[in-house]
Amino acid sequence: MTLYNPQPFALTDRERALDLVEHVAFGTLVCTADGGEAELAHLPFLVDRARGLLLAHVARANGVWRRAERGEPMTAVFLGPHAYVSPLWYEHPDAQVPTWNYAAVHVHGHARGPMDQVAARELLDAMSRRFEAPGGWSLDRLPPELSRSLARGVVGFSLSI
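^ that's the sequence the OP posted. Answer follows.
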């Protein structure tokens, strides 16, 4: 899978690209289903820069985690700010055409998973801390048996970056 990316707009700074991924956090995971067609999953991601990983989870019923179990290549697509650009915004609008400016990062890597239950629980806790307001919801609010039961329905995995 490739992306047309004119050289003047290419972002080659890995840290800036990961900054966008962290800011957007919600991406589209693209992998190949058994029949050869594209399989997509829209997911929240966390970036683990120290280990060079994107971390995510899916419902156990979502077969994407099986592809992670096999270490298959995947791509995570993150779309940042975007907007229409009118020729009227340029000094010489009659010499221009409209365009659309956007920021996007495609992360290509091999998936690994599933995470063990301890790592998956840590991922769910980390996601809650990242996306909840301070003092917001956490897994600790659930009775332990319910927490364990719900956690069994979730599979964590990672994507090398």
